[in-house]
Amino acid sequence: MALTIVVLLFLFIAGFAVYYAFSNVMSYTRINSLENRILVQKDFTGVLEQLEEMVQKLPGNPKVHYLYAEALAASGKLAAAIIEYNQVLRMKNYEEFTAELQLHRKLAMIYIEQQKYEEAEKELLQCAKNTPDSPLVYTELGDIFGKSDSREHLLKALKYYSKAYEAEPERAGLLEKIISAAWKTENYTRVKECASVILSKNESNPAGNFYLGKIFIMEEDYLSALKYFSISRRSREYQEESELALGVCYYYSERFEEGIENIESYLARLNKEENFKPLPASILSAKYYLGLCYEGMRNYEMAMKYWLEVYAQNSSYQNVAEKIDAFKYIMQDDLLKEILAGSMTDFRKNAAVLLEKLEFIINSVEELNKETLQISASKNAMKKFQLGAKGDAVIFFSRSDKPISENSIVDLIDAGKKRHCSNLYYFSFSDFFNDAKKLAESRSVIIINKDKLNALVKSEN
Fold first, then answer.
1. Which of 17, 62, 140, 249 would you label with 309, given CA atoms 20 to 30 Å apart?
2. Same domain, 289 and 253
3. 226 and 319 part of one domain
């Protein structure tokens, strides 16, 4: 009897051992099959249920937890995936199939997706401690925070990009990333330093040229900016912004025709290229500066056309409302439009007509520049506008829309000295800077500003 019991017990134990061994073989076969599907084929169909069962059966198996975490992350169950990845980190033997660095990086990617940037930062800093390639990790940290609009995050991006650069100065693309973050945080000294380093190695680098061009615009060195934007526009990444910046530089350099050509080409792409989709603010800026270029060319009708388009979209954009108000009276007055928007021949003719109405006798007219005439005249006694005593006079007559400077008054005084003439007049369709007014008053120069001239034009109409 006892022998029978012993034999039966032995058979039970042997059978259980065979079953257990077979069960383990089957489990590991399933694990290997799932590993191939998940990690190699990236096929997550129906695996969650199987892995949930296996986690219960094999709670101490790190690979099962790892595969489960992968499946959860792929299914969008991020909170549960975080728990499972952390479970793997607490276990032993996971190094057989994955690295600690990889686990921290996977956790970081989930936190990024959840926009928990500080948590992602902690995970990647763990990576930086445990990998010889810390510049790569610091670059990844910079990329995380560089996508944010938060100044705090952008400063972190700049910090980590700078750390990566310190560790490996030759890593490709790092200086460009530093420049972008530095620009967004208004660290313009850093931008200029890095752009100069980039261009010392490669003069045609688009990022270096683009950001150095932006620096020169800030410094109002538009000729230098033109040089750099002309290079950066060749790059697809910077083409759009560079083309618009070129138009702005042409305007401030008073190369209005080139500005018009450049900006009109930029705007024409809106209808020609499906993939050309600049920001609305960029389109407004283009139309505003196109109007300014046409103003510089004295084509006020075209200037008003573009300013009105800007005003319709954003009535408070720049000083567009003031521009429109300032030029409405020109567009409504034929004589004024002919004086201000006509050719130099028209300007000379109409300036002479106005001065003759003021009882000046015109002796000669010279063109100082495209905005200003120098007129030698004699003046009879007159009452209109109380413009001083009779006798020879030197007159500067300007149709510029920019205020008259002190230097312009000095030029008029010098012209009077050459002609031994003390009767000096400055007619202007714009205003005068305060220092110009003070100098004119101290040297008995009579100034006639735009209000008086406009009144005179209306009286002639």
1. 249
2. yes
3. yes
